[in-house]
Amino acid sequence: MVGCGGDDVAVDRTKTVTDTNAPPVDLSREIAKAKSENKLLLMEFSSSDSCPPCVLMQQKVFSTPQFLAYAKTNLNFVRLDFPLKSDLRPDTTATNALLARQFDVNGFPTFIALDSSGKVFWEQEGVDLSQADPANFINLLQQVRQKEK
Known about the structure:
Largest sheet: 4 strands, mixed
Number of strands: 4
Strand order of the largest sheet: 2-1-3-4
Number of domains: 1
Order of helices and strands: HEHHEHEEH
Shape: globular
CATH superfamily: Glutaredoxin
CATH class: Alpha Beta
Radius of gyration: 14 Å
Strand content: 15-25%
């Protein structure tokens, strides 16, 4: 597993994507949405501009057509960003920090899946570099989904 200190991970840092205007997450609404749509609620705590494994996952997995198609029908994917080089909206920064404390997030990337009542049933800190492939990450999520049932 590689976490945020994974400086040996090769990524193009000139192509990082940070949504500086992202609204704060309303976790209650996200839980209800995932439940009503029968989707997996997956939260990703990451740093879009300073964490090599986070950037790698964005570039190699989350932005691919394969993952986007899977997410559209199977996930409520909630991204909580902690950039170092960009400023988010103050309300978003405050909400992200509150949720990181609530879920005891200590490193990036951290993935957390919640059940329909909002309880954590799966968590992973860091990534196995084999997960930086859309098919492999989707396979992991399908396994996680089976644990929810």
